[in-house]
């Protein structure tokens, strides 16, 4: 089950209105168009300089070197060294979550060279319906060329209308950044899309780019990474630990979010609290999820902004640099009536339940970090133990508002961390989550499903710091 130390609950009862209650964030639920026309069929004869390897220089969610690994880790995508057009089409459809609206096989097949029972048909149809692919021949087995990859990506990124605003002079100026001096072998539409892809950063300026040249997996994965970025689905972060303005950004991120309230979702988890299935839960908004590289990422939960500011300063002093994302959350927990009349504020609300107790809702946050190296991630645990874990009352040498049992976790197995579980219920872009001992996962999941039949509970394991594991075992200190 989940626990909230009595000392913290009593402390919350005594604080004046406006005070930000120091609940342990995780309490937790149980306590987790047209498309390819002739030019896209590689029938181009324009004049290009010799083929060279594309070097991706624009900023993106990941470095070009690690784009492939990121796509594999997050989406299970791994392109062949020399991908086919069909493989790339399937990857794009997966990334943008495209599904055909007209999936009835009795409808006319827009492709003359692929059967409706082919595994590629559904993703290709979805892209065709969105104007990313055109009707006609798909040529799924043909080698993916750089031009085709760019044209598909440009449309999937939602930039084709921008591309078609380009007059010829603007097109020539843009494609000259690719070493292309003659566009007579391209249709105007193809040239416009290539030009817009350069200006939008999908393709990096370089001395020589040949649209007819075969695309490597590195080239294709770089495009997919930039596709995620343009669509707002790449890594999300407000800055890095070493940024000069990171503290201002953390303040702004914290100050501009409020308590998360999702009534329909809360009906389920509040009932779980009332039944004693759990003693608390978290509500989060998936639109703030960092989507960091799991091998270098940790998530740290807290409720005090001053602590967050000092934690980032602590990391700077220890020469640990990381991307930073502040993920808003609301922590809900059982507040007993014997603790006295609760004081409320914009960041702390209570609702009385049938037995006279309350459910309290407190504004909190998770700080998601993606460290520059795995080695820096490994050092984080020792830094927290030394400077942000409370072991005695009035302990000197700690950053402000340090907890007896701090909470931070990794989605990848980490030495010195302990495996626990999460049960998560999604509703749109919101979700309620629960952290628990692994042996309690099934009980909690089944209990939630009984409260509202048909509820989908997603369960998974992850690794948490040892003090928080002790907290789940009932140790408040």
Structure description:
The chain has 477 residues and is of the alpha+beta class. The protein has two domains: 6-32 and 236-472, no CATH class; 62-230, no CATH class. Helix content is 33%, strand content 16%. It contains 15 helices and ten strands. It has helices spanning 6-14, 64-75, 85-95, 121-129, 146-156, 160-163, 168-175, 188-199, 217-230, 246-255, 263-274, 305-317, 374-387, 441-451, 466-472, and strands spanning 239-240, 280-285, 297-302, 322-335, 348-352, 358-371, 407-410, 417-427, 430-436, 458-465. An eight-stranded antiparallel β-barrel has the order 2-4-6-3-7-10-8-9, surrounded by six helices. A hairpin with a 2-residue loop joins strand 8 (417-427) and strand 9 (430-436). It comes from Paenibacillus filicis. This is SLH domain-containing protein. Keywords: Signal. Residues 1-40 form the signal peptide.
Produce a short descriptive summary.
With 477 residues, the protein is α+β, with helices and mostly antiparallel strands.
- Secondary-structure-based class equals alpha+beta
* Rg, nearest Å: 26 Å
Helix and strand sequence: HHHHHHHHHEHHEEHEEEHEEEHEH
Distance between the termini: 17 Å
The biggest beta sheet reads:
8 strands, antiparallel, barrel
The figure for the number of domains is 2
- Count of helical regions: 15
Number of strands: 10
Strand order of the largest sheet: 2-4-6-3-7-10-8-9
Low-pLDDT parts are 1-62
General shape? globular
Mean pLDDT rating: 88
The helix fraction, in percent, is 25-40%
Organism: Paenibacillus filicis
Signal peptide: 1-40
Protein name: SLH domain-containing protein
Keywords: Signal
